[in-house]
Amino acid sequence: MVYLTRRERFNAAHRLYNHTWSEAQNRAVFGKCANPNFHGHNYELFITVKGNVDPETGFVVNVHLLGEIIKREIVEKLDHNNLNLDVDFMKDIIPSTENLAKAIWKKLENFLDDCELHCVKLVETENIFVEYFGD
Amino acid sequence: MVYLTRRERFNAAHRLYNHTWSEAQNRAVFGKCANPNFHGHNYELFITVKGNVDPETGFVVNVHLLGEIIKREIVEKLDHNNLNLDVDFMKDIIPSTENLAKAIWKKLENFLDDCELHCVKLVETENIFVEYFGD
Amino acid sequence: MVYLTRRERFNAAHRLYNHTWSEAQNRAVFGKCANPNFHGHNYELFITVKGNVDPETGFVVNVHLLGEIIKREIVEKLDHNNLNLDVDFMKDIIPSTENLAKAIWKKLENFLDDCELHCVKLVETENIFVEYFGD
Amino acid sequence: MVYLTRRERFNAAHRLYNHTWSEAQNRAVFGKCANPNFHGHNYELFITVKGNVDPETGFVVNVHLLGEIIKREIVEKLDHNNLNLDVDFMKDIIPSTENLAKAIWKKLENFLDDCELHCVKLVETENIFVEYFGD
Amino acid sequence: MVYLTRRERFNAAHRLYNHTWSEAQNRAVFGKCANPNFHGHNYELFITVKGNVDPETGFVVNVHLLGEIIKREIVEKLDHNNLNLDVDFMKDIIPSTENLAKAIWKKLENFLDDCELHCVKLVETENIFVEYFGD
Amino acid sequence: MVYLTRRERFNAAHRLYNHTWSEAQNRAVFGKCANPNFHGHNYELFITVKGNVDPETGFVVNVHLLGEIIKREIVEKLDHNNLNLDVDFMKDIIPSTENLAKAIWKKLENFLDDCELHCVKLVETENIFVEYFGD
To answer: Which pTM was predicted?
Structure first.
């Protein structure tokens, strides 16, 4: 079994805000991440799949096709958009890095035929990233 | 003369939009950068100053004080904010990387006493950056 | 379960030296890393914690609080110090990257309440890093 | 148990081509990676070993000796060579990143005495890497 | 005047070889870079243009159009090709990083209408790059 | 004229301290950089030379020979040493990044025959670097 990782990138706006809380509670927990007019990030997304190497191709998966799937199903829906307002699969979900990584997993796992999704790694800044390996 | 560069970072939302144009014209020129609900970036800011080396300290400028000035005058006003809505010195300016770099120069040059501002370099993504050296 | 990683950095001096060995043996094993007047590194520290995502916040842990803990308990004790001479929790320990990563784990695990420490990754140079996952 | 990783680099030419297929089939599967006159990459190789820390040295393994082994057994055979034509241990193997990582594992595991090979990570571009942990 | 830089990337094979020299002389000067079956690199190309900022757009140049031009005129001709054999504008030129940067300048300068080409920076490895500013 | 840059690296200890000042004054100006037992850095050194391209080789300078010169004259004298105690050409000089860059220039310019030294860039941390272009 070999693990193959493809990186894609997207630029999005978001804010962290719990609508069932008071403004003060949001500010206390989320700080400036709760600012009302949003801020944003250059997200880096690392999708890792695992599988056996096909002796005909030398591939676990065709990484260019994998890139196309990630771009079509994930990046085009997130890139240059607002994670709180514009993304159907993030509706009613606080767009933390953790929640976004889990939502990407849920969205992506249906589109992988010949290999298995192993990890969604989402880098928010050079100092913060999350990894999700499914449940 | 020695050139010293200090890097700072900020995360902000923005959109590119000319309010004197039609929606169609904005879309034609700015593409998805004009999306109404904003997107965002992890901006990297490199401030370069130049000067002679003080023989008492070995410094062109105390880089920690320089960092404090950049943080106080620039980063705190931009970080986790919306460049179209929240930043006084970007009011009525299209927040392109070019315009933001020029505005940062204009704001910062007044706060440097012992050295001279040489360059404002602003990195928007890993593929795009601008440099401004003053007029 | 989601894994969240926070990066912090510190700059420290050290040398590799076993005081029970002769000078020649130290030189044979550690080479120039045994130089008597020390050398140093820009260390990068990646702390990974794991836990369930709190539905109220979207967080495994508040990454800014995690950063504060790492800075207070680890970085402030190591940064701009000498790992052989200045750090109480490295007393009588050869300050190899391996030993330092283990000591950081031991020190840090007591301060994490809502999540579990998963990995201490310590990068010494762009070509060398270690990872410790506990015993 | 501690995991230690050493990075080495090599620059090589290759093409992806299955000699049992037609030209058209190669083109359909491998695209421009099948171009007849080769292309190339700056490969980054991360070798991770695991073991207990020797109390005399603080080392899992002497990372400089590990580097020497990787350079002698792997890098010198791949660097500035053609993976399709010049490398004995890649003979009759399609030089995909997956196959190269597996071949490096097979070649390297015999040369590690005091520690265990844990992972061969091979980075082909900033967007693509594979990891192999043995069978 | 503002300077704007766009990064593009390509992967290519090459060898350094002077056909008017003996094999021994090529080997003496170029070392393993003269290996007959080629090696290769992940090249990074930074194209810097300069100009005034258009008050209507905030742009020196539309960076996405600039990217399209670089991709169409340069990257598509170099990427996944062999610099010695496949590239019309490198015919009879030793494909050193220096010569390639100059050839890219010559090819690109004709396609920039609204701004001026300032610098072609070509990164061959993490340790070597060249910059060309025209004659 | 083409500019060629070679990167080398070294790891060194240092402290910032002016022996003609009181302890309090050193602490006031240099802060924790004055700590008595030293700290250290992974320095990155970028040496840029300029010259015409030799039509026989395609080179401004043989970058491998340039690397050898930098390693022999600079890196071997700084690497794994203490900039305050071990380096002859830094004797009685406060080892700030500025002063070290100037000293490297002075030392290196005598060893370049076929090209001209253009810039010494010295990176102390990911947030701080200096550039010196001679007097």
So the answer is: 0.98
